[in-house]
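Incident log, structure service

09:12 report received: a user says their structure output differs between two submissions of the same chain.
09:20 pulled the input from the user's history:
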Amino acid sequence: MRKVLLPIALLGIALGLVATPQISAQVQLLAVGSLTESKAGSYADLSGLHNTLESGVPANLLGGLGSGFAYASGNTFLGLPDRGPNADQYDDNIDSTTSYIPRFHTITMDLKPNQGSGLPFTLTPTLRGTTLLFSLTPLVYGAGDGIVGSGVPPQNNFFFHFFTGRSDAFDPTPDPNNSGNPRYGRFDPEGIRLSNDGFSVFISDEYGPYVYQFDRLTGLRLRAFKLPGNLFSPVLSSMGAVEISGNTTGRVANKGMEGLAITPDGKTLVGIMQNALIQDAALGGAAKNLLRIVTVDIRAGTTHEYGYLLTTGSGVSEILALNQHEFLVDERDGKGRGDNGSKAKIKQIFKIDLAGAVDITAIDGLTATTLAVPKSSTPFLDVVAVLTAPPLSLDPTLVPSKIEGIALGPDVFNGQTKLHTLWVANDNDFEKTVPDANGNPVDNPNQFFVFGFTDADLAGSKLVPQQFKSFRW
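09:34 re-ran on a clean worker, output below:
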């Protein structure tokens, strides 16, 4: 991910030397599975929490597993919920958020050849553990809301200061450096990746945006990475609409660093914003579709920004490394199951290449659009097209609206054909059922879709899996 001098990059674009790779993948659906229970019961996770949240739902509610999704070697994956249940309106002053403690789940995936009819494989996910995220040093939780009271997690003690989904857990004093404050307790996790040694996880967030490193075993925050100042909004509020109306720069509320990747060598994190920064979108034209990719050198902490242009989706939900410089990017709309029975249309995964990309950190949005990274003109995977076609033939109203987590898993054999696997997960917003187009309830589980592809489907790219060191977990 080296820098290229601006004049050379512009000359390459003008002469047509920056080629857009063409993709003609034959990615196939291998299996579908869902996870709605654990040893603790139906829609209950393994956090061991027994209290009730401000909205009346249990603090151990199992949901949102696909906000972020990561492979952890063998048959083990990590599922990341976001800031918790807030789909049911009860307090507009805090956007109906709760003191849900952010967490990640350890899940084993039993993928076996199907001996009967249907898809080639069967998938049985099992929840093995839930890890709560906390800080050893105190966090800022705000003064609390007048309707429901304090948002401090009741599990807090001298050593454990848990992060929270409550939107009011920040210091309202303006930050003169506009660089975020890792002492804020509010945390809206959206992307997760595992370190190569297997002992820590990296998680990106929408509130800041932030990127934190946590101990995998205990959930203790180990490090907060410093991100570029242009990503942060100076005016903060417990209400997203107020943040949006009160800022002329920074990330749009609830559309921060939605996706996170890690390079196979484990040295670089690659995050992507869900939507254009406020200052970029204000320039109009193509800048309204410019998303900023942020790379972070894990050891040194240095960052760079690169440009990504949306195709047809309303935003990006995830980024995943294919190798050291090529990545898969998940674009989607908000249509499908969970959106009042609407038909899913855009859930598409594109391939991009950061090799030779120009750092746009200090470049305005319009200029940056001319320096966007090369992107496949057609999707590597059109999720809606595959799920609605045989053999699954899923009704488009039942395709999850929030396809947000993607990960590469272990290779499998389908007959004599060796296949790489791409795992896709949804965020069900912690809602067990949602209304269809007629207002009738339909199930809304946490789901996992496993797709298979060959080297030929990568159209010249080489898959380099992340190399985890040998360890027992």
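09:41 both user submissions now match this output. Likely a transient worker issue. Closing.
09:42 reviewer note: Residues 1-24 have pLDDT under 50 and may be disordered. The longest strand covers residues 121-132.
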